[in-house]
Amino acid sequence: MLHLGAKGADEIGEAITKQEARTSGEIVAVLAAQSGSYRLLPLFLSAFIALLVPLLLLYLPRLTEGQYVVWAYDRIYFIQLLVFVGLSFVLSMRPLRYWIVPRSLKRSWSHAHAMEQFAAQEMHTTSGRTGVMIFVSVIEHYAEVIADTAIYEKVGPEVWQQIVAELALNIEQKKPKEGFVTAIERAGDLLAEHFPPGQINENELSNHLIIIE
Predict the structure, then answer these.
(1) What's the pLDDT at 3?
(2) Which residues in the chain show pLDDT less than 70?
(3) Domain at 5-37+102-212, CATH from 3.10.310.50, 2.40.50.140, 3.40.50.150, 1.10.3720.10
(4) What is the DSSP string of the chain?
(5) Residues 24, 205 contacting (CB under 8 angstroms)
(6) DSSP bridge pairs for 146
(7) What's residue 128's pLDDT?
């Protein structure tokens, strides 16, 4: 997990409160340690490699006392089992487990997790459909900004991508607090431009940083 500390988390919450005072929209920040455990992938990969062991050993006889001898089936089975157990143990270790996960799979799981959080934090329940969620998943090095329908009608996806790129850069440079605060300020500017405060500027969603271990 990124090391924000209580002070850093508080500053992010303060930034949200400050920006929401300028708009009728809502901003929510979510920091997730990971979006998936990926525990099945090491087992699948180990099983696939172990299945290749008999083919390899059957076509590569061993040299014994100057003669080539075909491997016995019980020995092939034992080696196959050993390969599966050994690889499963090694590939399941962190951070190797996350290293072998394809980038496309990480992005897919992270996006799905972000959408789950958008629903879980009730972003879609704001009165004007003007909620913005800033989401970061640490293990996957993934960042995303999800805006509700009313905001997407006003602000194009390329604008949010610029905010995401800047946020991701700050995360990569080990500056998570600065990344969140900057993204919150940019989102606040957009919300203030298109959705100024109403007569009743009710705080509908949580302002503190939501941390998912």
Answers:
(1) 67
(2) 1-3, 61-69, 199-202, 204
(3) 3.10.310.50
(4) ----HHHHHHHHHHHHHHHHTT-SSEEEEEEES-S----HHHHHHHHHHHHHHHHHHHHSPEEETTEEEPPPHHHHHHHHHHHHHHHHHHHTSTTHHHHSS-HHHHHHHHHHHHHHHHHHTTGGGSTTS-EEEEEEETTTTEEEEEE-HHHHTTS-HHHHHHHHHHHHHHHHTT-HHHHHHHHHHHHHHHHHHHS---SS----S--SPEEE-
(5) no
(6) 133
(7) 81
CA dist 68 → 35, 60, 63, 65, 182 (Å): 51, 9, 5, 8, 68
Residue intervals of the chain classified under CATH 3.10.310.50 are 5-37+102-212
C-alpha to C-alpha distance for 41 and 67, rounded to whole angstroms? 40
Amino acid at 9: A
